[in-house]
Amino acid sequence: MGEPDEATILHADLDAFYASVEQLLDPRLRGRPVVVGGGVVLAASYEARARGVRGGMPGWRARQLCPELVSVGGHFREYQRLGDEVMAILRDVTPLVERVSIDEAFLDVRGTRRLFGDPTQIARSIRQRVRSDVGLPISVGVATTKHLAKVASQVAKPDGLVVVPAGTERRFLAPLPVGLLWGVGPVTRQRLAGRGITTIGELVELDRGHLERLLGSAIGRSLHERAANVDRRRVVDGSRNCSMGAQSALGRRAATPEQLRTTLGHLADRVTGRMRRASLTGRTITTRVRFTDLRSVTRSVTLPEPIAETLTVTSVAVELAAAALRDHPEEREISLLGLSVSGLVGAAPVQLELELGLPGATRRPGSGVGVARRSVDRAVDAVRDRFGRDAVGLAGVQLRGDGGVPDAFRELAERNGRPPSDGS
Ligand SMILES: [Mg+2]
């Protein structure tokens, strides 16, 4: 494979998107530490990040770090509208726009030079237009591969542009921390640090066989490739970005936390089971709540990394449904709940140790619960492959004919199925 001779791939990523939108909508929030979400921080402004607050952190922890934190419920419809506006600006430049979440996309601008200038000029004008037409800060990375363009946009944040010209990739990557490579979570980072490897340059110098022995062959190989900027993925337009979902009509039910947990748990179980069978993971979780007058509201969130775990998807979906209900305090009954996961991508082997940064103390990286959950999922999948899908269910998920759920499953489900604390 020949090296690409020009950096034409852009990764455009809005900065602290939800929080920036809140600051755009309400000028009083500008310059202040703002988070979206109460029980769980769904997004944090840069002012909040400067105090150590991070997306996925429990709300109580965020307030502990930053007592003057302002937490807002979130204008999800506005997020969608403004995210769509930004995507429309990107599609003015090239039809080759691959939206990977509500606020982030890859573009390939090869072939648009005559119309719009070189990739750097295009990146500049995108940033200007998003700022002037929409009012939001966006960072852009430009490089020869998707992976590197994304690293570049992360380095560019906040509100910056980083271009990595063809031929300078390794020099650019060498001094950066290994944690910027996709899929390097805290476990891998620690393991590498134990061998004195903290930068990507040190990683790429390492013999590949040695790395494979250290991290396992699949992870070792893919990390070595990323560190050397080997990434053959092309930018594909949105038509391939599919989703998986399920919904459940409820007739007329009181919208209790118990009801949400039970139904969404059941739906998450079905959807993620299909995803895992197709070796897919997804980053965007959407929950739909329909009221008894048939009006419905949706809420969605895009996670830092793609997931396919039943319990994790359940917790996120419950949090979203609770947010939707908080916005409609007059509604006490619901007639339908829906759940979908989009932004689906193939499950990577490095999935095993991603730092999810999700709600709840049980999700601390390295706590082992993520791995345990995946073991639960794998176990359930295996049982169903043999005995059909109703043979086993997670406690709290309430599939038909439950009765023989092993204690280990039950305990996990209980620990993770707690209603999200809403201390805001
Ligand atoms: Mg973003």
Automatic annotation (TrEMBL):
What PROSITE patterns would the database entry show? Answer: UMUC (PS50173)
Q: What is the lineage of its organism?
A: Bacteria, Bacillati, Actinomycetota, Acidimicrobiia, Acidimicrobiales
Enumerate the catalysed reactions: DNA(n) + a 2'-deoxyribonucleoside 5'-triphosphate = DNA(n+1) + diphosphate
Amino-acid positions noted as binding Mg(2+) in the UniProt annotation, renumbered to this chain: 13, 103
Keywords from the UniProt entry: Cytoplasm, DNA damage, DNA repair, DNA replication, DNA-binding, DNA-directed DNA polymerase, Magnesium, Metal-binding, Mutator protein, Nucleotidyltransferase, Transferase
Q: Please state what the protein is called.
A: DNA polymerase IV
One GO MF term on file is: damaged DNA binding
Q: Where in the cell is it found?
A: Cytoplasm
Cofactor needs = Mg(2+)
Q: Name one GO biological process term.
A: error-prone translesion synthesis
Domain UmuC residues, every copy: 9-185
Does the keyword Cytoplasm belong to this entry?
A: yes
- SUPFAM superfamilies named in the record: DNA/RNA polymerases, Lesion bypass DNA polymerase (Y-family), little finger domain
Oligomeric state and interaction partners are given as: Monomer.
Broad enzyme group? transferase
Extract the CDD domains matched here: PolY_Pol_IV_kappa
Q: What is its EC number?
A: 2.7.7.7
Active-site residues from the entry: 104
Matching InterPro entries, A to Z? DNA/RNA_pol_sf (IPR043502), DNA_pol_Y-fam_lit_finger_sf (IPR036775), DNA_pol_Y-fam_little_finger (IPR017961), DNA_polymerase-Y (IPR050116), DNApol_IV (IPR022880), Rev_trsase/Diguanyl_cyclase (IPR043128), UmuC (IPR001126)
Residue numbers for the site described as Substrate discrimination? Answer: 18
Q: How is the cofactor bound?
A: Binds 2 magnesium ions per subunit.
